[in-house]
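User: Please predict the structure of the protein below. I'd like the answer in structure-token form so I can feed it into my own downstream comparison script.

Assistant: Understood. Taking the following sequence of 518 residues as input:
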Amino acid sequence: MTTTTERDSLRTTWLVLGLALLVRMLLSSAFLLVPDETNYWQWSRYLALGYHDHPPMIAWTIWLSTHIFGQNEFAVRLPTVLGITLCSVYMCLLARRLFSGRAALQTALLSQGVLLFNGAALIATPDGLLLPCWAAACYHAHRALEEDTRGQWLLTGLWFGLGLLSKYTMLLFLPSLFFCMVFSRTWRGRLASARPWLGLALGVVLFTPEIIWNARNEWATFRHVLYQGGIDNSGLVTLRFIGDYFATQAALLSPLAFLLLLAAWLRPARVGRRVTPGTVYLNWMSLTTFVVFLLLSLHVRIYGNWAATAYTAGLVLVAGRFGADPAMTAGRRRLWTATVVLAWAMTVPVLVQTVYPVLPLPMSLDRVARETVGWDELGRKVLQARDSMPRPEQTFIFGLRYQYASELAFYVPGQPRTVSINHWTRPNVYDFWFNDSMLRGKDAVGVYEYKGMGKRIARHFERIDPPETIRIYRDSPWFGRQLVRTLYLVRCYGFKGGQRWHPRNAHDIRATELQTGR
């Protein structure tokens, strides 16, 4: 029976999530898109079953949103803003199911404050779609384990498949759930039933667009993921990256929340001598992912967001263990309050920084400014340069990195199709959209950041003009006029070829026939 206290906790939970959604929707249009966001927006203009870096869900949802709400920052970010809200809803439902309404409320208070979830919501990346799929799959998988109904297993498979279409990290859901079942006397027998395997089959079927695209494109995404996982690294084990892994996880969750999660993993809750079933489930659904990336950090540097799925179940575990016991001691209550407050205290200034430079950071440390300031100004300058060319209708716009090509595509007035001349950098999606025959003989206006690159660019054109230096500034209440970045704009004539990435090493796992010309 639901008590008055439980109902009040649940009402407050939905209020917290609703207010967080409102704030994020307002913030989502208040600052310019970062390079990765404009890159994914570019994908939405070239709809496909898959892409070089990730599965297609981020492109599909941005396409839908921008066709409804227009080509603007709000529309690009709307799928992930809604996605993280859905993730939070499922986390709170899981907390309510495994613990109490109070645990759901504490899950809401903590999760809406951590930097990881706010970043995943306000920066349109695959994580903002992966996380709700993982949280939903966790919720329905627990119901499936308890109820063993076909509907719950199929819902688990549905969210698993959608997660695979968002990011390959969703694959770690399988060992998490499998080991949870194998090592549980209560749930082990479920593996003998056809129902879990029907759910898995549904997930695999949903993933077929990505498989088809990769089969047609020499498994380019798989190659990319293996390269990021360090398959080309000669060293097998190193301790260089493990400290960075722990530091980034603590920063994204906040140090106290991360320490409490470690404590919950190391000393699980028990009733008598037995670990409680809810704790067993949440441990497997969070710790498995964390350990996989911990082991991988012994080989390669791990990006901070790679282990993000661990914290959907992980934060539920922390809230249930440390924030929801009505009989907790005064010391435990102060610790939990400090955990929630610290998470918000670390996140709010960063969110405000996206709109106004409230933090007195030098530009070298202000990543928000470096990634968001000045793209619209740069776009206007590039348009003026293109219009001044002898043949503007036969002049394409390029960046030497996909980040600049994508920002120019979004912020040059008229949002023209742009090109990444990435002959010297790394393979990217532009290799699949353009080839030399489409561009040969045309003039170009391009942007690059390293001064010496002008000499390399000159090899690919009949001639180029001396580069024009462009400096982007922002006004800071702390430092006055701050230089954000220095770029070089170059006018080029008669493209001769060499647009696509060219591998330095023919044995580079990323090298396909598209790049090598075999």
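That's the full token string. The chain has two domains: 13-219+235-348, 369-516.
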